[in-house]
Design goal:
This protein has helices spanning 7-20, 30-37, 55-61, 64-67, 89-114, 137-148, 178-184, 190-208, 224-233, 258-265, 289-295, 301-313, 352-373, 376-388, 399-407; strands spanning 41-45, 49-53, 129-130, 244-249, 255-257, 276-282, 328-333, 336-341, 408-409, 412-413. The chain has 439 residues and is mainly alpha-helical.
């Protein structure tokens, strides 16, 4: 799904207004600017038929940091019971990117439909009020990029080793520095280099979509990597609004503004192992909790992709009705912007079709866990693999040894087949064409 058809006209109008206001900056033509961020390329997919991508996502798609996910199974050892369940975090991430942009477009349409200008007065109670902020192309591209990279820090076999206390949680960025380094380390991460190259174009888009008078003093732009990282690092259910914690090289101060993260998180990695410390990062002026909700939450792009993809490869006959998207909107609840499901029509009557689809969505999630994730043979395979996986000595004090055990050397990440150190019988083909295991 592409942005609204009038977007080109709005960009042209915004750029022209800036020129009339005396802005001497050389903006590209609106059509060229739109060409970088519009979904113009497509790849085939069994769930969505086509996954459409913009130039930013295509450049990230080609990096070795993202390609590593080809060798990480989405459902760890489920293939021992369901032979077709061999899809990867790579295909899942592409699907979440598509689902996130579709969800963003649907929410934007529903919020506009609920606005007073469309004939419906907003709920003035303290419990729920429609969001008034605009849904810009800038926000849409940012959400799609965060969705594409949301599983980047998954180690081989995904959640199979979550119960190991000597290993790191993939999404706990207070203890796991993998994602931070992948996004910011320009010396060794091609992904970090690509994101840094896109910074000027993102800033141009942000300025072009801003009103020259109302937004004359835009906040400092922290960089694409920092904006993506804060979407992934701030938990969707966290109501504190105080930012987040992550690991940075030890030279960084105890507290950072988001604008400073690129400077401190992108330096000091040339020493191996580099000393790290926990720092507090304040979210930027561009942060929207709604973005976190769209990417990963109870009802989110992550959920909407994996319940459709995992049930299909496992041969489970049920599927999620695509019309379910049309019920999803956004509202303010307890002072925070949330993704919500509209269960009432304009007259206040319960929409039984929406309620049925919501229950079906939750039931499908339960079925996946009951029949696949917690299948006795899958649980047994997971437990045996965890025992075969060599322990990490002095895990608490030797953090980089844990990182290398989970992901491999930075220049050559591990695949599922290689993670067990050769004690798991695989062929050369299963090892991803990287040679036999146990060298």
């Amino acid at each position: 799904m592409n942005p609204a058809p009038d977007l080109l006209a709005r960009l042209e109008e915004a750029i022209e207004a800036r020129k009339k206001a005396g802005d001497e900056r050389a903006y590209p033509q609106a059509r060229a600017l739109l060409g970088w961020f519009e979904d113009r390329k497509a790849v085939r997919d069994p769930i969505y038929d086509q996954i459409k991508m913009n130039e930013v996502e295509r450049s990230v798609f080609r990096t070795p940091e993202f390609q590593r996910l080809r060798w990480v199974r989405q459902m760890d050892f489920a293939y021992t019971v369901y032979p077709a369940a061999e899809h990867s975090r790579f295909t899942h991430s592409l699907g979440v990117c598509q689902a996130a942009k579709s969800l963003f477009d649907t929410i934007a349409d529903n919020v506009r439909r609920r606005s007073p200008s469309r004939g419906r007065q907003p709920d003035t109670s303290t419990r729920e009020r429609p969001i008034a902020e605009p849904f810009r192309l800038f926000d849409r591209v940012l959400v799609g990029l965060a969705a594409l990279l949301h599983d980047l820090s998954h180690p081989p076999f995904s959640h199979a080793f979550d119960a190991r206390p000597d290993l790191l949680e993939h999404d706990n960025f207070e203890t796991n520095p993998f994602l931070l380094r992948a996004l910011f380390d320009n010396s060794s991460s091609e992904l970090a280099q690509v994101l840094r190259e896109w910074d000027p174009n993102f800033q141009l888009l942000l300025e072009a979509e801003s009103h020259p008078l109302i937004d004359s003093a835009l906040p400092a732009f922290p960089g694409v990597a920092a904006l993506v990282f804060e979407i992934l690092a701030v938990k969707a259910t966290d109501d504190s609004g105080e930012g987040y914690y992550c690991l940075c090289p030890s030279a960084a101060p105890e507290t950072l503004a988001s604008e400073q993260l690129t400077q401190w998180a992108g330096s000091g990695w040339d020493r191996t192992p580099v000393a790290l410390k926990r720092v507090h990062v304040k979210t930027s002026a561009f942060f929207r909790r709604l973005h976190c909700n769209i990417v990963a939450n109870t009802i989110s792009a992550d959920l909407l992709d994996y319940i459709r993809r995992d049930t299909r490869v496992a041969g489970l006959p049920r599927d999620l009705d695509r019309h379910f998207y049309s019920y999803i909107s956004s509202a303010e609840y307890r002072g925070r912007h949330r993704v919500v499901v509209e269960l009432e029509d304009r007259q206040g009557h319960v929409r039984r079709d929406a309620l049925s689809d919501l229950m079906n969505c939750m039931e499908l999630r339960y079925i996946i866990h009951e029949r696949i994730v917690l299948h006795r043979a899958v649980v047994a395979a997971r437990a045996m693999a965890a025992r075969l996986y060599p322990p990490v000595p002095d895990a608490a004090s030797n953090q980089w040894a844990v990182v290398e055990r989970m992901y491999g050397k930075w220049a050559r990440p591990l695949s599922d087949a290689e993670v067990l150190g050769g004690r798991y019988p695989v062929t050369e083909v299963e090892a991803g064409g990287r040679g036999r295991v146990g060298r």
